[in-house]
Design goal:
Helices cover about 25% and strands about 20% of the residues. It contains 12 helices and 22 strands. The chain has a 5-stranded mixed beta sheet with strand order 5-7-6-8-9. Strands 10-12-11-13-14 form a 5-stranded mixed beta sheet, with helices on both faces. Helix 2 packs across helix 4.
Length: about 450
């Protein structure tokens, strides 16, 4: 196959600059390929650029690739100044870029505005048409004007969170603050404004504002605020837009609210019932170590992470795989129920990896850790271990695991240090040697005379 020669050019279509890579076969790639050498220069040239961070081995990335390219092709011939780009985050030379944008899984898609000075998460569809429509909405006005009851009914709907500002006139500090926040949060919420509250379907219709009314498909259905301080208004939206009560099901429109519910710092009560169809709740049952025949069951999780079961048959409150009967491999298997004994109380220097079986980075690190473990087999003071963080609870008050793999060294004296270096055998060994403690050898007991 003939190798492709990248040719950077600017094609202006209604003032839209689109860089295209053209191969010898004439195929045009509308998605820009970025790396450490051209990332900053390219991003600063564009007012609105979408960047996908991907890994070649990632199945989701492979499925997204043709849709992403098709969307870029469609957008290249539109009036909207939107450019799509991609970065291979699996390459070490691009690691600094990935860390800057907090890439912890694949694909991660970021929306960069105003030369990269404003960054937000892409939360739209992954099909070409859905990508195009979602991004077009983000380039229009941050808030839509509602001029009639029909406008309001169509905009608000029955299954989403929307924010509507009611104003006596479209000017003044309150209106400007509302628009500024709408522009900031437009990736997460839909905003609208109106001069007449009578157009709105719920709540008091005689108010003239200024006020902000948040509509939602749960709890009290709507809530108002008259505080137009930008920070206070953002806090109001974030708190009011999270459900106090929701249903755990497979309905796509309900998924964002389930995520918000589980992401809330508040204590949670979950009622598991004997439904005829339990498919939707299987993941929750498995996560908390519950079984279908235990329902009905009221489950309480406190902010400290403690789980309590209000039921006669009480399973362990920690989600844990069974403790291995045989654990003779060089890299020792740790589960939640053996974490204290093998790591905390072992009196050894323990290098512990938190991993996910599906994680490509973890798969690459596995043989390296095994080599390291073999090299330390004659050193009784050092233990190399791993814990499947998808099958075991991780003590969040001790270990900060936000991505995979996450590696810590717990020294013999209890000092905890996270490893953030390169994933090479020598670098990890150097890290162990730098942070390990010498373990005092006990004197053999003497027989009393």
């Amino acid at each position: 196959m003939a190798s492709k020669v990248s040719v950077w050019s600017c094609v202006f279509v209604f003032s839209l600059a689109v860089a295209i890579s053209t191969g010898e076969d004439g195929y045009k790639e509308y998605v820009l390929t970025l790396d450490h050498s051209n990332f900053t220069e390219t991003v600063t040239k564009h007012d609105f650029i979408v960047v996908e961070f991907y890994a070649p081995w990632c199945g989701h990335c492979q499925n997204l690739a043709p849709e992403y390219e098709k969307a870029a092709s469609i957008l290249s011939s539109s009036d909207h100044q939107i450019v799509l780009a991609k970065v291979n985050a699996d390459e070490n030379v691009n690691q600094a870029i990935s860390e800057k944008f907090e890439v912890q899984g694949f694909p991660t898609i970021k929306i960069l505005r105003k030369g990269g000075t404003s960054v937000s998460e892409y939360k739209g569809p992954h099909d070409a048409d859905g990508i195009v429509e979602y991004l077009k909405k983000l380039t229009g006005p941050a808030s839509a004007e509602l001029k009639s009851a029909d406008d309001a009914t169509s905009f608000i709907g029955d299954n989403k969170v929307v924010i509507v500002g009611v104003f006596p006139q479209f000017s003044g500090e309150e209106f400007e603050n509302f628009f500024a926040l709408a522009d900031k949060l437009r990736s997460d919420y839909e905003f609208a404004h109106t001069l007449d509250a009578k157009h709105l379907p719920r709540g008091e219709s005689s108010v003239s504002g200024p006020l902000v009314r948040l509509f939602k498909p749960f709890d009290e259905l709507f809530v108002d605020s008259k505080d137009f301080d930008v920070d206070a208004l953002e806090k109001f939206i974030e708190e009011s837009g999270a459900p106090i009560v929701t249903v755990f099901d497979d309905e796509p429109s309900n998924h964002p609210y389930i995520v918000k519910y589980f992401g809330s710092p508040l204590d949670k009560a979950m009622l598991f019932l004997n439904f005829s169809d339990l498919d939707a709740s299987q993941r929750a049952l498995q996560y908390y170590g519950l079984k279908e025949d235990q329902a009905p069951l009221l489950f309480i999780e406190t902010t400290g992470g403690k789980k309590e079961y209000k039921e006669d048959r009480v399973p362990p409150f920690i989600k844990s795989e069974p403790i291995p009967e045989a654990n003779e491999e060089p890299v020792k298997v740790v589960v939640a129920d053996s974490l204290d004994d093998l790591v905390t109380k072992s009196g050894k220097n323990v290098l512990l990896e938190f991993y996910a079986p599906w994680c490509g980075h973890c798969q690459k690190l596995a043989p390296i850790l095994e080599e390291i473990a073999v090299s330390y087999q004659s050193d009784a003071d050092v233990l190399i271990a791993k814990l499947d963080a998808t099958a075991n609870d991780v003590p969040s008050d001790t270990y900060d695991v936000e991505g995979f793999p996450t590696v810590y060294l717990r020294s013999a004296s209890g000092k905890l240090v996270q490893y953030e270096g390169d994933r090479t055998k020598q670098d990890i060994i150097d890290f162990i040697e730098k942070n390990r403690d010498e373990v005092a050898q006990q004197e053999p007991a003497k027989d009393e005379l």
